[in-house]
Design a protein that fits this description.
514 residues; alpha/beta; six-stranded mixed β-sheet; five-stranded mixed β-sheet; 21 helices; elongated
């Protein structure tokens, strides 16, 4: 087991993260903090961080280092963002940090920051032809991911802090200022020719501004999930937010639900940049990445130390199983048997297309709720899965997986639709039921983990479904338990369920094999 800590100092916020890396290659985030220092707020003219701001930074870093030391971090890495390349007294600040805190520091260029963003996103989201946008305090970085590979990247010399200071966006914005801001943005964006040529499928936004914008939109929609990663927005959502916020004073922005007060003064800069890029590229679809430079640092560290990482979905499942101490061998058996049953039932239900990822997540994580309590563990399944880091699935897939994992003798349809109607619909619930009954059958057959059960065949007639399994062990109790699903099976498919388990004969002791 190893613990690594990272401190990242940006122009707007300073962030801390500490991960535990286990011997089975799983990892867990143990602590995460941020402090909004706005180091770059007054550096546009002087290019110098004031003594007062430097003192505030040192206090924050001492606190973060204290947390890392108290939790037994094996290594603590401190990273200066590209913002510090424009700071005239950065060497003095670096020397002070190394002297007072005994921390080695490293500095990132804008390209290196985007490369870490890319690593974070490509290891946690399915992307192919995508525009990545990261807005920081003094810079906006853009990258073109083509066929999953980082193809082009560039930067705009504009950020939330620099725009706010240059155009005085913290207060009520006049019409002339609004026009001047957009002229400036269009000019700088126009200097990156490939932005118009990319023909991107989507935009992925990353960083503190992206998280802040998504939080405002989620509050406006009363969105039922608190997870930022994979949150979907449309271009009109951002553009409307920008136009509305342009009419509000700082005091009025403080009252906007979901907008943190420490970003109320700089949010207009971020919205302006995003709006102009959206208009230039004519992109409609936006996804928010909750993973950024810190996660990119982690993934690069893991890759360098352990080699290529597993598929993001498999890695996520493995992490959750490790955190909740679920038997991974049993989870794999449950998944394989569930998949076999679902395939055998393919003519019973509609052709839903490829649901393999939802089947994998819901069946492998069927037992995570047991880590809370045996009774009602299926309800704990839902909470854990719907609030866990599951990379490779969007929010719809996560909710469907969480619901399928709760299936015992059916689902509470009305409750699910009422609470998650923005994410799933009744057709999705039909898919969940088709998966859920297969999981429930597999779980009842594999209740005794020492027994091995194999799917053999399935015969479907007009009135009945006969499904046959094999096992070397007596399965009378398990067969009895599966047959308790007969009523719900009849209700779902209008057919009688018949379950047979053929007992494989054990070779007689002492029999010679030829």
């Amino acid at each position: 087991m190893e613990k690594i800590a990272l401190i990242y100092i940006g122009g707007n916020t300073t962030r801390f993260a500490l991960w535990q890396i286990n011997e089975d290659r799983s990892y867990i985030l143990l602590q995460s903090y941020k402090e909004t220092l706005k180091l770059g707020q007054t550096t546009r003219e002087s290019s110098r961080i004031t003594e007062e701001k430097a003192d505030e930074l040192m206090v924050v870093l001492q606190n973060f280092k204290g947390v890392a030391d108290s939790l037994g971090a094996d290594t603590t890495t401190l990273i200066f963002s590209e913002f510090f390349r424009r700071i005239s007294n950065k060497v003095l600040i670096q020397d002070r940090i190394e002297k007072e805190l005994s921390l080695r520091t490293m500095e990132l260029s804008s390209n290196e920051e985007m490369e870490l963003d890319y690593l974070a996103i490509v290891h946690s989201m399915r992307i192919r032809n995508t525009l990545i946008v990261d807005i920081s305090g003094g810079l906006t970085q853009v990258a073109w991911v083509k066929e999953g590979v980082l193809f082009k990247m560039d930067s705009l010399p504009l950020g939330t802090l620099t725009l706010t200071e240059k155009f005085q966006l913290e207060e009520m914005v006049t019409k002339d200022t609004h026009v001047a801001l957009e002229n400036c943005l269009n000019k700088e964006i126009g200097n990156i020719a490939w932005l118009k040529e990319g023909n991107f499928d989507e935009m992925v936004i990353v960083g503190g501004s992206a998280r802040a914008i998504s939080k405002i939109d989620r509050n406006k929609r009363r969105y039922p999930m608190r997870i930022i990663h994979e949150y979907d927005m449309q271009d009109i959502d951002v553009i409307n937010m920008y136009n509305i916020f342009m009419t509000k004073s700082l005091r009025q922005r403080y009252l906007i639900e979901g907008l943190d007060k420490d970003r109320a003064d700089i949010i207009l800069g971020a919205l302006g940049i995003l709006s102009m890029i959206l208009k230039t590229t004519k992109l409609k679809n936006i996804r928010v990445s909750g993973a950024g430079i810190r996660e990119g640092f982690l993934f690069r560290y893991l890759t360098q130390k352990q080699g290529e990482m597993a598929d993001m979905l498999d890695r996520s499942i493995s992490n959750i199983l490790s955190i909740h101490t679920v038997d991974k061998t049993h989870a794999e058996s449950l998944y394989r048997l569930t998949s076999s049953i679902y395939s055998a039932f393919c003519t019973l239900h509609k052709d839903w297309g490829d649901l393999s990822q939802i089947i994998k997540v819901s069946s492998k994580l069927r037992d995570v709720g047991l880590s809370v309590r045996y009774y009602n563990h299926e309800k704990h399944n839902f909470y854990i899965i719907s609030n866990s880091e599951i990379n490779g699935l969007n929010h719809r897939g996560i909710i469907m997986s969480a619901l399928a994992s709760t299936f015992t003798d059916g689902l509470t349809h009305e409750k699910s639709i009422f609470e998650y109607g923005q994410i799933i619909n009744r057709m999705d619930l039909s898919m969940v039921n088709d998966i859920g009954i297969c999981i429930s059958m597999a779980e009842k057959l594999l209740r005794a983990e020492i027994k091995v059960v194999t799917f053999k065949r399935c015969h479907i007639t007009e009135d009945a479904v006969q499904i046959v399994f094999t096992s070397k062990d007596p399965m009378h109790f398990e067969q009895h338990e599966v047959m308790k699903l007969s009523d719900i099976f009849l209700d779902m498919y209008g057919k009688t369920l018949m379950v047979e388990i053929e007992e494989l004969k054990q070779p007689e002791s002492g029999t010679a094999s030829k």
